[in-house]
Amino acid sequence: MSTEHDDPLQTFIAESRELLLQMEEALLDMESRPNDPETINAIFRAAHTIKGSAGLFGLDHIVAFTHVAESVLDRVRNNEIALDPGLGALLLQAGDHLGQLIELLAAQGSPDATVKAGGQALLEQLEAYLATAHASPATVRAEVPAAHTGQCTVDSPRWHISLRFGPDVLRHGMDPASILRYLATLGEISAIRSITDATPMLAEIDPEACYLGFEIAFASDRAATDIDGAFEFIRDDCLIHLLAPHAPLDDYRRMLEALDKDVGMRDILLALGSLSAAEVAALDAEAPTSEAAVEAEAGGSEPAENSAKETRTAENSLIRVDAGKLDQLINLVGELIIAGAGASMVARNSKLPALIEATTLVSRLVEDVRDSALTLRMVQIGATFNRFRRVVRDVAKEIGKDIALDIRGGDTELDKTVVEKIGDPLTHIVRNSMDHGIEPAEVRLARGKPATGQLRLNAFHESGSIVIEVSDDGGGLNKERILRKAIERGLIGESQVLSDKEIFNLVFEPGFSTAEQVSKLSGRGVGMDVVKRNIMALRGTVDIESVEGVGTTVRIRLPLTLAIIDGFMVGVGNAAYVLPLDMVLECIELPNNLDPRHDSANYLNLRGGVLPFIRLREQFEIDAPPPVRENIVVVQYAGQRAGLVVDRLMGEFQTVIKPLGKVFSQIRGIGGSTILGSGEVALILDIPGLVRQVTRQSQPAAAGSTETCTTGST
């Protein structure tokens, strides 16, 4: 079967991954709400949907395994089995195994001996919970026999299903026979008639088109939504009528009106046993004209298939788009912005009012398109946070600690690319906090803390960035031990004085560790250099705050998007630079009355506060003479303010971020580049790095000489 991106199999794989995540979250919820029927039903529905969809594609190994898990869940749902921690852990392992099978399917592989052995071991454990079931374990594990899996009995209600496949069903990779195979898992097909009246003459047949239809008498105890779910992947390409048992004749009459009347439908309904001879004769009678019947025709009483479809209205309003297509769209929007900037420059140079007005309108529309395109890639970070519930649960049991996870800010949105790349650094930080941050229960009790440790994941927006915090209420970092290790390794001198923040940031040095015993999970500081490197690759920063005996907070700041930003352009000499607009607070003129004795200190009084600044002319060693009047751009990052002295203020600019090559990636103060409308390249300033540099240089002078600030008051 083809596995192209638009193939239904790819849709099945994507939806199965989502359902497995939902199933895992629900199972974790059961540990705190063990008897919540809605959560149990959610777990059952996830397993049932995966089984049903797998059946449509003939994935018998997935169907067989999922059926056993579904049977156990069905007994839990019927209060025949209690969902205790042991069963919950087993179902989590079953979900992991299903995930393996789905990933193998995505990679076009097949289960090897190890995977099969693991699945068989899980089946044996699951079947132990079915030991008292009416069917034997061998029957349960069989490849889904129709009479058992459909739970059909002699007295099961009789449904009628009318199905006409669309001509493109085969082209979309769907096998009509798979629908019959899946229906057999829900009940019993007591009678069936193939409809081939749509088949054209031999010379006109399209070998890739489908001309088939079915009329089916179906016995099942399942709900309408379960039976209707069999047609999930062909709903948009087919004509489907699902008539409930004992449906009124008006429902059959409406079905006949929608179908071709020349195929002898009345005889087929009679032969299948869906209608009696008297009922078939009554179909030809005049339709009722009572007020009730009129209301029914107007929608007051709809057939079962309509009510089943209503439950999927919200789902049908969403479409899946390949991430690669979104990336291509963002790239094209970026090129459009660059081309629009060039057109605007030509318009300004031409000084034609009509042309300037037209390009201004185009620029505004391009900005709207940019915002809309970027919104398409924004996703909530809550899904990433929720995955750590399983990590925390498993790690806590492995290391013998009782740890509770508190998730906040899950609805905070950021670029999908950032979300995908932040998972590994967060995993390392979380494991470190659990293994070496949070103390064992006996130590916590001796220190007057609750026996259960608290780990918190939090996210929020701040100044155009997203802040992610990983906090624990553990023992905190030992500053003296960090300093001692740093001196031993020659990272700092013995007489060097560091702030608390600088001390804590030493743990990001390669190979730095203060752990007395190396754990197989982590060591606080071990691998933290990799964490910092990965975060900096996303144009982000990471800092640590810690109080010994109280806890530690690792704070990560990331840009909302890696593609396009609003920028503020400045000029120094003949060069142009771009600052992220959301970090710019204000622009002021550089005072010309700075005391020459303290000018080298590079700080001034801004409305009663100390503002350190840096001259970009000196930072980038620009030889051109400075202008008579210079300006300061006040920027802020992570609560710290600094000033950047520039020659010219050139206004707002839509900035398409282009990465620097490896040769230039280590240049201090530069975070990327962009292309101007003229075709020239402008560098994007690394504001976080510059702010840290400015504040670090100015702290000693500002602390020891506050009286000099008054000379440059603004």
From TrEMBL:
Domain spans labelled HPt: 1-108
- Keyword Nucleus listed: no
Query: Which UniProt keyword terms apply here?
Result: ATP-binding, Chemotaxis, Kinase, Nucleotide-binding, Phosphoprotein, Transferase, Two-component regulatory system
The cross-references to Pfam families, in alphabetical order and at most eight, read: CheW, H-kinase_dim, HATPase_c, Hpt
Q: Low complexity composition bias: which ranges?
A: 291-306
Recorded GO CC terms: cytoplasm
Q: Which SUPFAM superfamilies match?
A: ATPase domain of HSP90 chaperone/DNA topoisomerase II/histidine kinase, CheW-like, Histidine-containing phosphotransfer domain, HPT domain, Homodimeric domain of signal transducing histidine kinase
- All copies of the CheW-like domain together span 564-696
- The first-level EC class reads transferase
Which reaction(s) are listed as its catalytic activity? ATP + protein L-histidine = ADP + protein N-phospho-L-histidine
Alphabetized CDD domains for the sequence: CheA_reg, HATPase_CheA-like, HPT
Entry GO MF terms? ATP binding; phosphorelay sensor kinase activity
According to the lineage, what is the superkingdom?
Bacteria
Q: Which InterPro entries would you find in this protein's record? A: Bact_Chemotaxis_CheA, CheA-like_dim, CheA-like_homodim_sf, CheW-like_dom_sf, CheW-lke_dom, HATPase_C_sf, HATPase_dom, His_kinase_dom
Q: Where in the sequence is Phosphohistidine found?
A: H48
Region of interest (Disordered), ranges:
291-314
Sequence ranges assigned to domain Histidine kinase in this UniProt record: 362-562
Under Enzyme Commission nomenclature, its number is 2.7.13.3
Which Gene Ontology BP annotations are present? chemotaxis
Stored PANTHER family: CHEMOTAXIS PROTEIN CHEA (PTHR43395:SF10), SENSOR HISTIDINE KINASE CHEA (PTHR43395)
Tell me the function of this protein: Involved in the transmission of sensory signals from the chemoreceptors to the flagellar motors. CheA is autophosphorylated; it can transfer its phosphate group to either CheB or CheY.
- Protein name listed in UniProt: Chemotaxis protein CheA
Q: Which organism is it from?
A: Azonexus fungiphilus
Organism lineage reads as: Bacteria, Pseudomonadati, Pseudomonadota, Betaproteobacteria, Rhodocyclales
